[in-house]
Amino acid sequence: MTAIPFLDLKRQNHEIAPALEKATLRVVQSGRYLLGPETEAFEAEFARWVGTRYCVAVANGLEALMIALKALHIGPGDQVLVPTNTFVATWLAVSLVGAEVVGVEPDPHTLVVTADRLDASLTPRTTAVIPVHLYGRPCPMAEIMAWAKRRGIAVVEDAAQAHGARWGQQAAGSFGDAGCWSFYPSKNLGALGDAGAITTNDRAVWDLARRLRNYGSQQKYYHDVIGLNSRMSEMNAAILRVKLGHLEAWNQRRHTLVRRYVERLQHLPVILPPTDALEESAWHLFVIRTPRRGGLQAFLSDHGIETQIHYPVPPHRQRAYRPLFGPDRFPVANRLADEVLSLPLGPYLSLGEVDYVADALCRFFEEETREAHHGYSTV
Ligand SMILES: *Cc1c(COP(=O)(O)O)cnc(C)c1O
Asked: What does pTM read for this prediction?
């Protein structure tokens, strides 16, 4: 029996069920299911929330990245700097627009890329970079933007895990030439199905992205560019509008839970996520690191605690990319893949549940120490 699921989406939707029902009924009765008033309203509301002039709603996070790259004219012949320790979608977007991935190892402490590391990986054909705000932790965007401007390199932020993250006073997703969002159900802001968006202050990017998501068309049956079908449904736009109103409170709740995790786990022999940016991170995931991951995950599972690994195989070791990169090419990403473990976290987890998880972790390491003292392990 699972006492504590990794993320309970049903619990989260239950509290706002009346508002969700009202929104969905409104869409059903409207007769408009694509590119209608809900999408337009969501785009305006989300742009305001992020602090950009424009937002283009699309079908998912992968296509948000692809469309943003295309809107910046990145394609065949271009190389794009991308972190080695990201979800594979960041890499796929680059490959799918015909450009080439150049892997950049993250800072081993914050797990995000820095301007220094990007600079060290720069190639003559580099025309863009995709900083990923991994686990909700914002990349150092002030220095990255200054570096990119100096070099004339386009910046596409992968903000798929960073709804609500800030660098200084500014929101993640509002720094780059484009910010790309996923509203996959488990993200901090999640739709009931797939959805995504691009935020930007650049009118040309906005204009081209709007056409690219809709068959390259502005006027029905007239096609200016080679586009995709990547529209957000009116149903999801309406649902996301409801949820956007709760996002700030949900993120505050994540902060409270993270503080408790840190308080309870800091004396254990595990690497905790750095808390220097506790308020700035969106805390999409709470990821600890230990070489004892296998044993720990099994122990927690035996105690009804569901954990996950983000991600067990880095992109360069996937079959899709193995022919292009040797398996030992990126040691930081390889090591992280062996050691990371994501603990349960979500706005509807209780402090008692965090304590239950923390107690189990303490017991695991107590038993380990005891066994080490006796020099044998009990079966
Ligand atoms: C979820 C995610 C994506 C892809 O989003 P989808 O909506 O699933 O296509 C891209 N990048 C990162 C870092 C993600 O976590």
From this structure: 0.97
